[in-house]
Amino acid sequence: MEKAKGFKGNLFFLFIATFIFIFILSLKTPRTYRSTPQPRWAPTPATCPLVSNTTITPLQNTQHFLVSAYMDQRVDGLDVRIIGIFRRDSIQPLQCFFNCGSRCNNSAFLTSPTTVLQHSDNFGFPFVTTDAMCSIPKDCHPTHVTLLTQPHTLRGSDLSWLPIRNQKTNGKETRFKFNFTVCVSNLFGDYNNVLQVAQALEMYRLLGVDRVVIYNTSSGPELSRLLHSYSQEGFLEIVSWPIDKHLNPSRGWLFSQFGGDLHYFGQLTTLNECIYRSMERSRYVLLNDIDEIIMPYQHNDLMSMMNTLQRQQPNTGVFLIENHIFPKKHFEPSGRFHLPQWNGVPGVNILEHVYREDPDRNIYHPHKMIVQPRMVEQTSVHEVLKHFGERYKVPLEVCRIIHVRVALRGPLPLEQLHEDKRLWDFHEKLIPNVDGALQRAGLLRSERES
Ligand SMILES: *[C@@H]1O[C@H](CO)[C@@H](O)[C@H](O)[C@H]1NC(C)=O
Ligand SMILES: *[C@@H]1O[C@H](CO)[C@@H](O)[C@H](O)[C@H]1NC(C)=O
Ligand SMILES: *[C@@H]1O[C@H](CO)[C@@H](O)[C@H](O)[C@H]1NC(C)=O
Ligand SMILES: *[C@@H]1O[C@H](CO)[C@@H](O)[C@H](O)[C@H]1NC(C)=O
After folding, report:
1. Is residue 348 part of a domain?
2. Residue 406, burial from CB neighbour count under 10 angstroms (0-12, 13-18, 19+)
3. DSSP E strand stretches across 244-312
4. Do residues 261 and 188 share a domain?
5. Is the pLDDT of residue 34 over 50?
6. Which residues cross the membrane (predicted)?
7. Distance, CA 53 to ligand 1 centroid (Å)?
8. Residue closest by Cα to atom 14 of ligand 1
């Protein structure tokens, strides 16, 4: 009896092992994968390619959304990463559907299986940021991709294609268009903190930032005016992010506390989107909010700081910067930078707030990050989720975040805060630059009166 049982057990084990082996083999060979039968679909000029013209594209026959597609061959055997927002409880098998070839009239349409990777940070919300990963079928040079459910009856009209971005031009050495890009995840509500935003953007510029990317769900009227002006000039890239048209986005970070469909208006998705958007064009990416300034304290700009840090930490792609709160209720008493021309401009004047809280080190203290985007696969807000290379906490004396906002540790008396006038070191250039920006947007008082 005993023996027979053991024998059966072995057979069972052998069966499972074979199955696992075949399964692994099937995973290992995606590069030459060519599904049979290929979907037959006769494209018509009217429907092909129907390229999505929005940043949030509902995926037909599912509850999911597609955001953007990027070439990404850093992970063995995979070629394309489609960033999306998926409903966690209804993730079904999917296929990547490639438009191979540059013209609809000579394109082949090929599929390959999709691996859906959910990001580990979902904070309990029903929707999560996902990467749908695919390999490109043999002999396909795709320009566009979308996802199919199975079974799917193909009708051209219900497909929305995403262009595949970050396609390297062969043979050309990568030359970065930008040294530093700031990714500001989301604007929502009627955020209208014009003065602080203008000051932050001009401060970024003085520190060597070449491009700021902002995802806009909604913003106040004056702020919109300011941002449009920056966007015309090319410093700012505004990505429309109408998440509230599709989902009930949460204003908080934790589902159990705030409810809603998705963490903070989709902040985690936009941060990842921005990393991939910047991957081929920016040496570094700063992931911080619009009211935060990543400030070097020993260098005059970000480039000289990063050159030093990178020499000391050559294999590091993720630099963690500690956040420091400058409560907006405490004013610098001399009023030196309480400037009359800013009186009519809505928002906080960060030059007036020079008292810094010590973080409460007994609780989790969040960082923001400077990353080399090519060394990041998935990110969260305060940490990267998947990365190559090392991460490094930058010492406080080298760099901190200046974050003017409501006090985090409200009861702390002024005597327990630290005077920190680092921003003042830049006032000679900062003030005229801010004035110029406000003027170009038609938001300076003198000009509105005249
Ligand atoms: C996108 O395309 C749809 C349908 O063609 C059109 O109605 C809509 O206005 C377009 N949206 C944008 C932002 O161009
Ligand atoms: C077919 O391709 C040719 C060359 O690639 C192009 O000139 C032509 O406009 C295309 N026709 C249609 C209907 O897309
Ligand atoms: C990036 O920084 C280097 C100096 O380290 C400079 O020579 C180069 O012009 C900068 N590139 C851009 C796009 O600003
Ligand atoms: C942000 O989006 C809202 C809603 O679509 C729009 O009214 C506003 O003009 C946008 N602002 C910018 C700067 O694009």
Report:
1. yes
2. exposed
3. 282-287, 292-296
4. yes
5. no
6. 7-27
7. 6
8. 53
**Segment 372-379 mean pLDDT:** 97
Nearest C-alpha to atom 4 of ligand 3 is from which residue?
303
User: Of the bound ligands, which one is closest to the alpha carbon of residue 245?
Assistant: 4
Residue 255 belongs to a domain: yes
Say whether pLDDT at 237 is over 60: yes
Instruction: Indicate the number of domains in the chain.
Output: 2
Q: Strand locations in 245-307, DSSP E?
A: 282-287, 292-296
Indicate whether 154 and 189 sit together in one domain.
no
User: Quick one: 158 and 192 in the same domain?
Assistant: no
Ligand nearest to the CA of 57: 1
58 phi, psi to nearest 5 deg: -60, 140
Confidence of residue 108 (pLDDT cuts 50, 70, 90): confident
Strand partners, 115: 133
Return d(Cα 432, Cα 450) in angstroms, integer. 19
Residue 433 sits in which domain range?
Answer: 178-440
Q: 313: domain CATH number? A: 3.90.550
Domain boundary among 112, 134, 165: 165
Q: What is the pLDDT of residues 173-189, one digit of tens each?
A: 668 999 999 999 889 98
Q: Give pLDDT, residue 129.
A: 97
Give the pair of three-digit tokens for residue 77.
């055997």
Pairing of strands 211-216, 236-240: parallel
Q: Is residue 141 part of a domain?
A: yes
Q: Is the CB of 219 under 6 A from ligand 4?
A: yes
- For residue 60, being part of any structural domain is answered with yes
Nearest protein Cα to ligand 3, atom 5 = 303
What's the CA gap between 421 and 424, in Å, rounded? Answer: 5
Rounded Cα–Cα distance for residues 297 and 233 (Å) = 29
User: Does residue 37 have a cis bond before it (omega within 30 degrees)?
Assistant: yes
Identity of the amino acid at 57 = T
Strands in 291-374 per DSSP E:
292-296, 316-327, 355-356, 367-371
Q: Do residues 116 and 79 share a domain? A: yes
| C-alpha 158 – ligand 2 centre gap (Å) | 22
Are both 348 and 231 inside the same structural domain?
A: yes
Q: What tokens were used for 394? A: 């930058």
Tens-digit pLDDT profile for residues 211-229: 999 999 999 999 999 999 9
